[in-house]
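LAB NOTEBOOK - FOLDING QUEUE
OPERATOR: T.R.
BATCH SIZE: 2
PURPOSE: Compare the predicted structure-token outputs for two unrelated chains run back to back under identical settings.
PRIORITY: normal
REVIEWER: second-year student, initials M.K.

ITEM 1
FIELD SEQUENCE / FIELD STRUCTURE:
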Amino acid sequence: MLTNLDSLPAGRSAVVVGFGGGRGMMGKLEAMGIRPGKRVHKLSAQFMAGPVTVVVDGRQLAMGRGIARRVQVRTDS
């Protein structure tokens, strides 16, 4: 099932399939290690505000909800 990283429930894993946004945002995500084909595990997200926290390649990363909404992921189920 396709969704975005912001909508992925905490505790779930998914594979990144693409981004919506410009080169600057894509470059920032790739520098963080978030690129198509990578598995991400969503740790947490604060209700209505605050960062989305994920683990990629064993590293914990935080990003704003606006960026997380532009990261398209595919869940296993």
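ITEM 2
FIELD SEQUENCE / FIELD STRUCTURE:
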Amino acid sequence: MAQDRPIAPDLVVLNARIYTADPGRPRAEALAVANRRLVFVGSRLEAQALVGPGTDVWDLGGATVIPGMVDAHAHLVSLGTALRTVDLVGTRSYDEAVARVVERARSVPPGTWIEGRGWDQNDWSVAAMPTLEPLSRAVPNHPVYLSRIDGHAALVNAMALERAGITRDTPDPTGGSIFRNPDGTPTGVLLEDNAMGLVRRVIPPPTPRELEQRILLAIGTANENGLTGIHDAGVGADTIAVYRSLAHEGRYSLRNYVMISAADSAFTRLLREGPQLGVYDRLWIRSIKVSADGALGSRGAFLLAPYSDDPATRGLLLASRDSLTRVAAIALAHGFQLNVHAIGDGANRAVLDAFEDALRERPTADHRFRIEHAQILSPDDIPRFARLGVIPAMQGSHQSSDMYWAVDRLGYARAVGAYAWRDLLDSGVIIPNGSDFPVEFVNPLISFAAFVSRQDRDGWPPGGWFAAQRTSREEALYSMTLWPAMAAFMEEDTGSLTPGKFADFVVLDRNIMEVPVNQIYQTRVLRTVIGGTTVFQAAD
């Protein structure tokens, strides 16, 4: 009696140049999908034999296919908000930023809050922190709140300070700073969340409908850029509830590894509920996000020694070693991973010390604690990541954005330990890559190109910025696929094009593993696929 023929796959992809990110089979030319998962990855001839009457067949004409890209440190709601507010990214002067706010003010009633984000004084012709006077003169009848590019500082106008009740007599909050003139009056710049929150708390929150629209807008933008997943840093219970609702309705086309904000009012309740894995195959909630310092661009990153371009400050340490140790112990007790934002070498050392304390008290195998950013490291601390089992989650595009002024902030000797990808990889760790969007552009290939070149899209500087820290293209591919999966305990389901895993993949218009670096920046996403279903397809 003839053996029954296996059920035909739902989809077969043929004639492709496939980079699988699977060390066991790094290249293939065809794949097959059934019930949202890969059932075959291999040769075209073999895949053709699987085609049945109901199988959808795609002939990609030699296009490049890679696993679905995952941004290992992003802010989904912040992206949606940025897409709805005044875009200040790329402004070349304070006057240009003010002009964009003035344009928005013309279209909204007086008294309505105007929000914007993306200014960076390092890109302006006068690279100094702004003050509120020009903004207040140009926009006197609307309260204005403008987030810096890194999200760690904000500029507000006089009406916003008035609404918030901030005066010369308002003390600096713990872990934050109100910039002041010599007479003590606020300049309009607020540094770090605790200071920024003095104004944010009086801004009306988005309605549930508006929040949902922002999330959907951000998801669509992520898909358009080839992202099938993100690690969402610092999310509260209310936002998680909207995520759940959208996922339940089938409107959430991302796999989101959610980091619960330790500052959220519902943090204790979320811990008691325990890790939640694969909710509707879209949400994984098993990690905690804490911030240990600020950002380098606003001099909020905490350094071991003073800033080279401002010896009066070392930045801000937002969480002590003892407090970080307590949170780490809580995470271990509840089965959660702990992911701590640390940029300066001082903050990174404090976090590593706290992790070591917590793991000594509560030894735990495969905890996969992470340091988010890990931008500036003392050479003495680099080997500690592998020794403690700590993952540095880094962002290639931060290096290619910061390299123009980072040496001024740090001095040459300290900059050698900045964005030290090669040294970290050689020490035995993985590096999940990301963008920190909307701090950087959503396009993950910008970080891919930075990893392999340490140059900008114009090829500057020749040879690369501290070029010894470059990675191979294979490592850069892993940093956007397999390594984010491993950093999220998701490697059994995602991260490579391996039979049994979810059929998440991206079709590109050129081969990023071989083309010159400048062409990586020009690469277009032709199709983004999650679980065998197309969630984005280029118009042509």
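REVIEWER COMMENT (ITEM 2): The radius of gyration is 24 Å.
FOLLOW-UP: none requested
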